[in-house]
Design a protein that fits this description.
The chain is mainly beta. It contains 5 helices and 15 strands. The chain has a single domain, classed as Beta Barrel (Thrombin, subunit H). Helices cover 11% and strands 40% of the residues.
Length: 371
């Protein structure tokens, strides 16, 4: 009986032992293709390094406008008439904010440039709303018109965060380079994105990727997979991940044959959505606590909004981004920027490492050497 108890005690003692396990490079499949499995090596240092180049962009467009009656509503050809305000029944001011994600692609003591989505930093010069007839069809008469009087772009985490401008854009690809020349020389060592450019055309269904950005204004990195590769001739792709507003411009990074082989394969530009129409009370009316469960007798307006369909996220390919840079050389040069200096690649990894082996500490494992 004592011998039996001794055996049990030894077994319990051995099973409670911990040791360090090394997983060597031989455990990684080297097939020169993008990985579809979760990384088997530590990634935090690399993710933090990439994330340091990703910034939040905020824009604000301010408008001055007028509202009209159906009788006095002007035509579109008349909105530049200096006397248009005399026909208005109401003068109004409107602010339209937006936010997104941008990546630092160039920085020196005098200038900085970032890549983002065009729709994040663009806003219309004029907003026009038309009256509808009894059948719900649009008439030529304007109900309200707003003229843009100010547009600002700010980028957090960089010197002189205000007064950025659009240096080059492509509205079809939804790409834009924003930047500025500093008023004084900067000594801040701003982190510039320098990881290798990959090939989105080589992505496959199930390819594992990381997404970096600012959904709802929060700095985040997410892991997901490619659900549809090469969805168009420009090698755009679809990700199976729930994203929120603010992720537009977010980096998409794939891994080829394990850590640290990160490659930039694209940029998020849109999430799936649907338009929802609903009725709202008079626009100047603010509900009071006493109004709850009381009949409303004021005017009712039709309004609409875009609701996000979560789980479907669209990305533009790195091939489209490279073509955009080539086509924008002249526009960037006129602003004092040389696109050849953008995205200068560096040796991969945030710092030199003694080994690419993964060291996993304190894992319970069978002990064969009796320690």
């Amino acid at each position: 009986m004592k011998n039996f108890l001794s055996v049990i005690a030894v077994c319990v003692s051995l099973s409670a032992c911990t040791r360090t396990i090394y997983i060597s490079e031989k455990s990684i499949i080297h097939d020169a293709e993008y990985d579809s499995e979760f990384p088997s090596q530590p990634t935090s240092d690399y993710l933090e390094d990439i994330n340091n180049s990703v910034k939040m962009v905020n824009t604000m467009s301010s408008y001055h406008g007028y509202e009209f009656t159906m009788k006095d509503g002007p035509l579109k050809s008349q909105i530049r008439d200096p006397k248009i305000s005399e026909k208005a029944i109401k003068e109004k001011y409107l602010n339209s904010p937006a936010s997104g994600t941008a990546t630092v692609i160039f920085h020196d003591p005098d200038r900085v440039a970032l890549l983002t989505c065009y729709h994040v930093v663009q806003s219309p010069d004029t907003i026009i709303n038309y009256f509808l007839d009894e059948n719900g069809k649009q008439t030529p008469f304007i109900e309200s018109v707003y003229f843009k009087v100010r547009h600002t772009i700010t980028v957090t985490g960089v010197p002189e965060v205000n007064d950025f401008e659009v240096l080059a854009f492509d509205d079809q690809k939804d790409l834009a380079v924003i930047g500025k020349k500093y008023s004084t020389k900067q000594v801040l060592n701003l982190s510039v994105f320098t990881y290798p450019k990959g090939r989105a055309e080589e992505l496959r269904m199930g390819t594992f990727v990381y997404v970096f950005g600012f959904p709802r204004g929060e700095r985040m990195v997410g892991a997901t997979i490619v659900s549809r590769a090469n969805k168009d001739r420009d090698h755009g792709f679809v990700l199976n991940t729930p994203m929120h507003r603010g992720i537009s411009g977010g980096l998409v990074m794939a891994i080829r044959d394990g850590i640290p082989n990160f490659e930039w394969v694209g940029m998020v530009f849109a999430v799936a959505g649907e338009r929802i129409e609903y009725l709202v009370p008079e626009r100047e009316t603010e509900a009071q606590p006493s109004d709850v469960q009381h009949p409303y007798s004021g005017d009712i307006y039709l309004n609409s909004t875009r609701s996000i369909v979560y789980g479907i996220t669209y990305a533009v390919s790195i091939e489209s981004i490279e073509l955009f840079f080539q086509e924008s050389k002249m526009a960037l040069a006129t602003k004092g920027f040389n696109s050849d200096l953008f995205l200068q690649e560096k040796p991969q990894g945030p710092r030199s490492k003694e080994s690419n082996d993964l060291k996993i500490r304190n894992l319970l494992a069978p002990n064969n050497d009796g320690s």
